[in-house]
Model the fold of this input.
Amino acid sequence: MAEARRLALMIGATGAVGSDVARALRARGWQVRALARNPSAAAEREPGFDWIGGDAMDRAAVVAAAGDADIIFHAANPPLYRNWRGLALPMLANAVAAAEASGARLIFPGNIYNFGPDAWPFVAETAPQRPTTRKGAVRVEMETMLHEAGQRGVRSLVVRAGDFFGPSAVNSWLAKVIAPAGKPPTRVVYPGPLEVGHAWAYLPDLAETTARLAEIETELPTTAVLHFGGHWVTGAELVEAVRQVTDNPRLPARQFPWWLVGMAAPFVPFLSELWEMRYLWRHPVKLDNAKLVAVLGEEPQTPLITAIQNTLGAHGCLARDRLE
Done:
């Protein structure tokens, strides 16, 4: 008798992180059930998942969807930094309730917003979480929620990573600012000092890592946190990678106009939220992945040049002869 496939409930599968993780799980033989407000439209974009109707803000719908799941991957995020406290916290609380009712492991993609200057520059899982920003405080509350649920037996896993990039990450810093999607770049606009290192997570690698962890999740502690190292590169190294991939060694590098964001921030809520996070580009914040490597034996990592080429090619930033 064939062994039943394990089932993953995906919350936020229409986003970049959720869709990449869902594909990685499916490639490893998982059955993927995905929650969406408009399941028919979602199924047209991604026909390989079992789409069901539901809203991440509807606790009853989330609990019902998770009834027979082995894991719940929660990647739902408020768009454009809007109303994190009013949306992110209750959505995660609903996922926790679903994990508690079903016995599934809740997997949550973490980021570096949780940390303040006392945790830099090399950040382990045990580093203090004393952020200096509003969104950082919300992120700490979210992970505190997972720890408190763990005391009731709810199993969770936070996989923390740096800034996302990849073919599906169309709203990333790389796709929106550094090398905007849609045409070959005429310049590279970088948000920080070129000599400062920055943590990047290539989404296909992060998704593969998450899928591998999902397969051994029963071996992990009730409340687990692991750091994904990804690519640690300076601004100058990233600029050089874009130049190499586009075959344009003279591509100029420019600084992102933070001064303009600062001027407009009091009047534009999105820019106000963006302004608050500028510190992440001014200081090195590197994630220590030793614990992850000890668990998996290795961290999947696509070479930086290949990752940049795959990303820019998918975003329409390469000339036709660079795609062949």
Observations:
- The mean pLDDT is 94.
- The domain at 7-161+203-229+284-297 is CATH 3.40.50.720 (Rossmann fold).
- The first helix runs from residue 16 to 27.
- The first strand starts at residue 7 and ends at 11.
